[in-house]
């Protein structure tokens, strides 16, 4: 099977320059234990020869093409919602690809579920999660193959059913008898997925180069337009951290072989300094903020740790500060308890920010509250991260009800992309 896949890739050199460029960023690896014919992640494309050997050559070509398009869309490497659920990620990715480029080779939707076309991966993730919640078939922690036995059966012991357009042996197009098995297979699809900023940047540059040369090959316009859109930089976290005064650099210096010495080059170890900004992050937990927005807020907080921030003080607020201030020194992985769900008032977190002289206050909110008052000149700066609609995000403009933020002292704002 490896020879067949390599032959397909070699043929792309002349006929599919975009696909060839993208696939060359990953290595091929055989894995007979996976429940899907092919999956990607960690700069590797894994394939199961036991499944693919039963396929026709045309189906094999289409399946690796779909996996390369998935890589170009960045699904295996982008920021994952909190908490990450591999089965839902895999299913949402398949839904996205099906609406863009339907070949009949990817997972069917759960029975009765319908999705609109033209949405992005994050939006399909929300739709899938909502559907599974409402129908009482939400993935449990142990359901999606976490026990490591690779089972593809549901609780009744029944196996998978279905087939391709040509025969019944195409294991990537089988309907599972029960949603548990379907989620287990989709969890296998996303088993290698992990946020990787370096790979994301490499993919973005690769897409830019392909777009400049206009060499998309047989990839339809609707697909490559979505690829271009998905690789646009949404939130620049480095810029966010750099706005909080000159104290963003820590006095503690550490040596690293990942950087060259400024004086001696790669012959000697370089140095790095971690961020030591005192940040206060205020999460709006009022009744007007939905659970998806809270998940997005936690994902944003987790993201800061990837840029060297050592600790973040996090508070929850509605009309007042709820619960105790939490000092986070690593990304949140487990269950995060949310309290509140009342009205909204910005004054309590602003008062804490002023009283304790933080370098920065990050207010993550939907903005449904009057402007707070500043009793003194802030020591640091305030960043308002506003949940907005798709049109608000695309324009970058504040909704009319929040126009006061543009003139609020020591402030900047960002409209968050809708999940």
State the oligomer. single chain
Spatial ordering of strands, largest sheet: 10-9-8-11-12-13
General form: globular
Order of helix and strand elements from N to C terminus: HHEEEHHHHEEHHHHEEEHEEHEEHE
| Structure classification | alpha/beta
Estimated radius of gyration? 24 Å
Roughly how much helix do the residues carry, as a percent range? 25-40%
Number of helices: 13
In total, the number of strands is 13
Describe the protein.
- The protein is α/β, with parallel strands linked by helices.
- The chain contains 13 helices and 13 strands.
- The protein has helices at 2-15, 17-23, 49-52, 57-73, 86-100, 121-134, 179-189, 197-213, 221-230, 237-242, 291-304, 347-355, 390-395, and strands at 27-30, 38-41, 44-47, 160-162, 174-176, 249-261, 265-275, 279-284, 312-317, 321-328, 360-365, 381-387, 411-416.
- The strands form four sheets. It has a six-stranded mixed β-sheet with strand order 10-9-8-11-12-13, with helices on both faces. Strands 1-3-2 form a three-stranded mixed β-sheet, covered by helices on one side.
- Helix 1 crosses helix 2, helix 2 (17-23) runs antiparallel to helix 8 (197-213) and helix 5 (86-100) packs across helix 7.
- The protein is globular.
- 38% of the residues are buried.
- The model is unreliable at 139-178 and 245-251 (pLDDT under 50).
